[in-house]
Fold this protein.
Amino acid sequence: MDYLATNYLDHDGIFRKAGVRSRIQSLRAQMETEPGLADFDSFEVHDVADVLKQYFRDLPKSLMTEPLSETFIIIATAVPKELQLEAVQLALKLMPHEHTETLRILLQFLALVATHSDENQMTVRNLAVCLAPSLFHMPSPTRSASTSPVRGRRGSYGGVPDQKELNDNKAACDCLALMISESAKLFTVPQSIRDKHNCRYIEIGRPASLKELENGDICAGDGYKAMVDVYIQNLMKECQVSPKSNDWVSLPLHQGIDMFYKKLSDGYPLHLWRCSMEIEAPPADVLHRIIWQRHMWDESFSQARVIEKLDMNSNILQYVETSSVPLPSRQFCVLRSWRTDLPNGSCAAIFTSVDQPCHLEEITGTVLASRYLIKPCASGRSKVTHLCRIDTRGRSAEWHNKFYGYQVAAQLLSVSRSFHFQVEQRQTKF
């Protein structure tokens, strides 16, 4: 999709005109044997577009899933047009997260293609007609029990389709066209639901202002420094005892990283993640890398600015994280504070969201907790423990509780590898 979006958005008939079968097979073989290294420039645009369609068509389970494909068809045929968007939004909440993320990326890409319809002749409707058979599960009344589930989609049976098949196919195209047209707001909670219901977990996730933090229960009116001190003290206490004896659930070792999670009882549905590993650098260097050199270990880190300097070791930071193109970026606005004078040469860094009028992006994530404790080890190494609970917005609680911890672990591993890369550069110079 990135290749097509970069080079061929204005190409006539993309997804409509067929590629050459032998070239399509060759490209598929390249992509299967060497993922990420395929030479797309050696093929025609229609070959690449056909491979994309074939990928979705050949999935063991259709992207729209079998039960939801039927739901979407019912929405397109039985729900009044003015209510169809809201019905689709609600139905998507039932879709498995991996399918939702993939569908979101695909729809944003197709919407981008449609914006160039004057050149490529691919309107929203034309795109829906070309892609719907690959995305929806379209069971046939004539399908035998031995039919492969991959073949259980529209256009796979041969023969003349009956009237129901034709109606279902049209409804699938109508529904996909609606999804493409409304892709920008398709995955949000319908406004009518937000107006009618008090979603407590959303309210809990609202960042407090710095003044509210200073006057809260933790600070007791003593200012943000008192709050940071309490956070660091709790962090050190947490890391003094074994996670297994303190309500943490252990996960298998992941690339040398110890991983745990904990369910909290504050009403917010996201787990607190804990990842720890040793890094070949002293605590002060690791802290400097985390605070001031995030661009060296976080590929999603796009831009940042200090909005307000509070003291020598604290500030209000705004930064933007990019997502998988074409997913929207997310901004964060955090109180960032760090300490280098902890017992035994340890260091710590605290990040927590604050409410500030500093909007650069439409979606604002919430850092409920991001706390690093960096302890010295033998031979100039450090033991780094990261406690993290971040609501990235736009993803389900199920996704956060199953997968987000692996992103936390990957970032910690990237911090470690950034020091290895630095050593390799020095050795190369010599």
About this structure: The longest helix spans residues 397-429.
